[in-house]
């Protein structure tokens, strides 16, 4: 079934570097024992600095590669709320062992793009509890200059 034939919605994003994930949907659906789905091509790819409106809220798009090469997060400056997906978690960071993932890129994106948003920014991760960037700056072991020895 062609999803575009049953909806008037535009498919927006992700960042173009994640296109290979969308093209791999048929194989991924078979791998998980699901009905095969067709590859998707967005009507518009998201890019760093884009703005996406959801109702009355406008979200800024930040490209934060590492978990995947095209991972994006969404920031609402007015409410100081970040939708971080699988980039950062309370006490952790996203996996980078997926195809084209890169742990160093992930940490760099967090330090260069997310932490400068401010300590008071609350983030909603893809899994687990909410946290703030300030708490993670101080307590997240992946963001410290020296990793703890376990």
Give a written overview of the molecule.
Keywords: Hydrolase, Metal-binding, Zinc. Its cofactor is Zn(2+). It comes from Salmonella enterica subsp. salamae. One of its GO terms (molecular function) is metal ion binding. This is Putative metal-binding enzyme YcbL -like protein. The chain is α+β, with helices and mostly antiparallel strands and 150 residues long. The protein has a domain of 97 residues: Metallo-beta-lactamase, Chain A (4-Layer Sandwich). 21% of the residues lie in helices and 25% in strands. Strands 3-4-5-6-9-10 form a six-stranded mixed beta sheet. A two-stranded parallel sheet has the order 1-2. The protein has a two-stranded antiparallel sheet with strand order 7-8. A hairpin with a 2-residue loop joins strand 7 and strand 8. The chain is globular. The termini are far apart.
Please describe the topology of this protein.
Blueprint: E1 12-15, H1 19-23, H2 25-31, E2 44-46, E3 51-54, E4 57-63, E5 72-76, E6 81-85, E7 88-89, E8 92-93, H3 103-114, E9 122-125, E10 131-132, H4 133-139
Parallel strand pairs: 1-2, 6-9
Antiparallel strand pairs: 3-4, 4-5, 5-6, 7-8, 9-10
